[in-house]
């Protein structure tokens, strides 16, 4: 809940569900990453809707109690506590309401590799670049996207980044 509030306040780019899932599993709770992602999306929707409607803590708890009968009592208590402590900090401006949400670039890693051989070819000596982009989607889920490029493809990729950098310098 606290990470979702921080994400909605733009203090962190998103929720790293893989890391969070591992921490929860280490504490002894049996949960998979898919279920955790669904919970994070639901809580993000809940908190952003409550902020947009300027709900007080009691209004939020009353709405949860009347609309969601399957929500455990301790879950409602956690939501109440976090919303009471940090919920009012969520700033929802008119511009934010009217802006389409897009993902956010978090990090990029790359490595150079050489394929030496394979089952069908004894001598490849084929260089390639592996790029891993870390992005946070609009709901705050952080994911890694990886792809490989040949050296000419990487040079084109690099040239395009240089063009973007020069355009950004003129702004």
TrEMBL record:
Any Pfam family hit: COMM_domain
GO molecular function: NF-kappaB binding
Domain COMM: 104-171
Its job: Scaffold protein in the commander complex that is essential for endosomal recycling of transmembrane cargos; the commander complex is composed of the CCC subcomplex and the retriever subcomplex. May modulate activity of cullin-RING E3 ubiquitin ligase (CRL) complexes. Down-regulates activation of NF-kappa-B. Inhibits TNF-induced NFKB1 activation.
Entry's family note: Belongs to the COMM domain-containing protein 6 family.
Protein's UniProt name: COMM domain-containing protein 6
Gene: Commd6
């Amino acid at each position: 809940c606290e990470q979702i509030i921080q994400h909605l306040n733009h203090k962190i780019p998103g929720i790293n569900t893989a890391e969070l899932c591992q921490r929860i599993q280490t504490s002894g709770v049996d949960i998979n990453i898919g279920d955790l992602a669904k919970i994070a999306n639901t809580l993000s929707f809940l908190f952003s809707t409550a902020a947009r409607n300027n709900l007080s803590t009691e209004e939020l708890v009353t709405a949860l109690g009347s609309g969601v009968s399957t929500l455990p009592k301790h879950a409602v208590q956690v939501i109440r506590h976090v919303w009471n402590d940090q919920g009012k900090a969520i700033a929802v401006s008119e511009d934010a309401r009217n802006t389409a949400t897009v993902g956010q670039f978090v990090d990029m890693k790359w490595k150079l590799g050489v394929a030496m051989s394979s089952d069908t070819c004894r001598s490849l000596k084929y260089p390639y670049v592996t790029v891993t982009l870390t992005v946070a989607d609009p709901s705050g889920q952080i994911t890694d996207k990886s792809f490989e490029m040949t050296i000419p493809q990487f040079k084109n990729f690099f040239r395009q980044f240089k063009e973007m950098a020069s355009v950004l310098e003129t702004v």
